[in-house]
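User: Can you predict the 3D structure for this chain?
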Amino acid sequence: MSEKIHKGDMLECTVDALAFGGRGVARADGLVYFIDGALPGQRVKAKVTSVKKRFAEAEAVSLVESGPDDVPPFCPHYGKCGGCDVQDLSYPAQLEWKRRFVVDSLSRIGGAEAPQVAQTAPSPQEQHYRNKMEFAFVGGGSERSLSLGLHKRGSTDSIVNVEHCALQSPFAMDVVAAAREFCRESAVPAYNPVTRKGLWRFLVVREARGTGQCMVHCITAPGAGGGVVRALGAMLMERFPQLTTFVHSTRKATSAIAFGEEQTAVLGPGYIEETVLGLTYRISPDSFFQTNTAAAEVLYSTARDFAGLTGGETVWDLYCGSGGISLVMAQQAGLVVGFENVDSAVEDARANAERNGVSNCEFVAGDVRGRISRRKERPDVVVADPPRKGMHKDVVQAILEAAPRRIVYVSCNPTTLARDIGILSERYTLRQTCPVDLFPHSAHVECVALLELK
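Assistant: Here is the predicted structure, written as structure tokens:
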């Protein structure tokens, strides 16, 4: 049937479901359509953007009939900015569809039969929940006005100058507005990856909700821009007393990643401290830390409960970051060994253990695959919190060889979680899974899965 459908064609259809990633799913003319900007229950007119052998992609052009869970979006930038996917879907419906994402992935990819998946644990805050956001610079100079904001929906190079963002705190948005104005007045253009000219690249705002501390991390191209960057930091620190540190990093690589290659703490200590479940964590500019502090407490508590610790177990925490889960586990374990390949995160993890008086934690820097294969002790419990791409196949194999009694898998991607569980299922049984919503109004969902040795 796909021969009858072409790019640019218009169709009218009813949306049946929501796909992982936030696009509506409809069926017409013998094809499955993934429609950007469409929600379950809606009837829409959509324009076909691409046609494959078994499915087509489209974008909603107009709404013919509303769906049962439609709600008005609360952000003036919604639909233009790519920060939110499903802001116009009621929050209870978001939670249910996220649960279905997990069930579908475990069944279809992981081969699990009737997986036990709990209702999605909601975020304690539906708005203003993010403690970190990365804003990108573009333009400036004589060509066009400089922009500082978030990527336009569906684009990697167009920026929306967000004046309001209900995911961030009002304070963070005031900081962004002040930085935008300063950088425009500096007449220094943003970095252009094609010409490799310009200075400004990213502005990252991080807040510690438990302590009130705040960091601004400015990432620029290398060169002679240190003076104007220091002036930006001084202006922000003077205008916003809540700001406790300003860090400047330079990045030579052209890839658009908010990660510096050389880093300087221009003002303040160069890090902030956050509290979660009674523990204090040091967070450096490039360290991973959950971006929803209140929901992170739900996530960590769930992982601790799933681990079933009694006080004497040896726990391996793979991809441990700055020790967020490690220190929580250490409260009920005999020994926790955290593995992480980012050196600065390991330094933070060690400092966090010392700061909290935790003496039964060890943190190992380096490639996780190589490090765990050389360990002599055998773990009773393995906790894994890998990036979106999931665990490397060699890490999965090393876990199988170590044969812990329990595996607690914390995942930000149900598809790679299901893939890895499918491999582990040769020796492990999936007991339970709990989705946790750390990102309201987006299609992302975290979940915690418990596997037990057969």
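The chain has nine helices and 22 strands. The two ends are 46 Å apart (CA to CA).
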